[in-house]
Amino acid sequence: MEMSNRQSPSKALFLILAIISIQHISTVQCIGVNYGTLGDNLPPPAQVAQFLKDKTIIDRVKIFDVNPDIIRAFANTGISLTVTVPNGEIPNLTEIRSARRWVNQYIKPFVPQTRINYIAVGNEILHWGPQNLIDNLVPAMKTLYKALHMNGIRDIKVSSPHSLGILLSANPPSRASFRPGWDVGVLKPMLDFLNATNGPFMVNPYPYFGFDPNEVDFDVFRPNKGIYDRFTRRTYTNKFDLLLDAVFVSMKRLGHGDVEIVAAETGWPSLGETFEPQCTVANAASYNGGLVRKFISGRGTPLMPHKKFETYIFGLFNENQKPGSLAERNWGLFRPDFTPVYDAGILKPGAGVPVPAVPVTPGPGKKWCVPRAGATDAALQNNINYVCSQGLDCRPIQQGGTCFNPNTVRSHAAYLMNLWFQTKGTTLQNCDFSGTGDIVTDRDPSYGACKY
C-alpha cells in the first residue's frame, strides 16, 4: 500500500525537471529600471511603456509613487511594475481601514490588467526618515499586506528598499553586519515578515557612492586585480558583488539568509560637475553594461554563485528638474526623446534606435546653490527654517506657490538655499549651509513657473 502511493523514479525525475524548467523560464530576465518623473520634457507614460515593450529587454519597472497614468500605461504589456508608498503615508497605513482604502484607491482598479508585483513601502526610510516613520515601517508593511489579502489580492508582495547605510561595514563581506539598533529593532522583524510572506529584501547597492579613484575599475566592472576576503578565501572582481554579499552575510546573522535579495536601485551617472570626474559616459556605460552582462551570464556572487538577482537600474531618463549637482540630472539610460545616452546592452537587436551623441561638459556660466546629494531631509529642513527666519520671501514654496510642487523637502530647500545665495552674494560661504550646499554652473534649475 505504501509503495502504491509512490511515484516511479523516472516520473518523479520528469516532474522535478519540469518544475526547474518553469522556474528558469519565469526568471530568465528580471532586468528592471527605475522610472523617475522629475522632468518637464519627458514623454507620456503610454509611449514609455510601448517603447520598453517593443525596443528593450527590460521586463520590469519601478516607480516612486502610485501615479495612475503610469500604472494604467503598463496594462497588458507583460511588464511587471513596482509601485511605492510615499514616505509620509506610512503612519496612516498602520491602521487597517486606512490600508484598505489605500489598496482600493491605488491598487485594486488596475489589477490584474497591470502586473503589479511589489509594493515598496517608502524609500530608504532608515537612512533618511524621522523616527516616527522608522517606528511605523514594519507595522505598515504588515497591515498593507493584510489589506491586500482582505481585498482578494494575493500575488503582490510588500517590501521596502534600503540604502546600504544600513550596513555597519561591507568590506570584507564576511565580517559585514547591520547597524546596531536597526538590526534587531527593525530589520529582524522585517526579515521575519518577508520570510513569512515570501517577499524580497530590497536594497540599493551603489558602488558610485563609495567611489575611490584608485578603485574605479573595481567599481565599474572593468578588469582589475580584485579584493580578497581572507576569511572566506573568496576574491571579488567588482564592488556590486561585494555589496550584495555583505548584505547576505548581515541577513544570515539575523537568521534569514534564505530571503531573496532584490537590487532595487543601482546605476552610474554619465555627466557631472568638475568636482565629479567619475561621472563620465565611459564609466556609466561600463557599470550598467557590465551589470547587464553579468546578469545575462547567470553568474552570481562569490557567496551566492549562479544566483540571478532581480535588478533595477537607476534610471530610465535623464530628469532635468532634479535638484542637486549636474550628476543628479544625468543618471538616465535614455534622453527624453528615447535616444540612448550610451549602449548598456538593453536594446533589442534591430531596435532601430539612433546612436546618441556624447554629452558635452558645459562651460562656465551663472551659479546656483542647490542641496548636496547626500544631504539629509532633516538638515535641509533646518536650512528652510533658517532662510525663512531671516526675512526672505518663502511664499513660493508654500501651498499654492509657484515652487510648491514637487512637495518635497529637497525641492523646497533647493529654491530657498539658492534664494539666500543670490540675495546674499554668490560666494562659496553663502552656499555652505553647514556642508549641505553645492554650487552648480551647468544650467538654471528653474522649472515651469518656479524661477530660481
UniProtKB/TrEMBL annotation:
Which segment of the chain is annotated as a signal peptide?
A: 1-30
Membrane topology, as annotated, equals: Lipid-anchor; GPI-anchor
Q: What is its EC number?
A: 3.2.1.39
In this chain the X8 domain maps to: 367-452
Q: Which GO terms describe its biological process?
A: carbohydrate metabolic process; defense response
The UniProt entry lists the main location of this chain as: membrane
Instruction: Write out the similarity annotation.
Output: Belongs to the glycosyl hydrolase 17 family.
What is the name of the protein in this document? glucan endo-1,3-beta-D-glucosidase
**UniProt organism field:** Oldenlandia corymbosa var. corymbosa
The organism's lineage is: Eukaryota, Viridiplantae, Streptophyta, Embryophyta, Tracheophyta
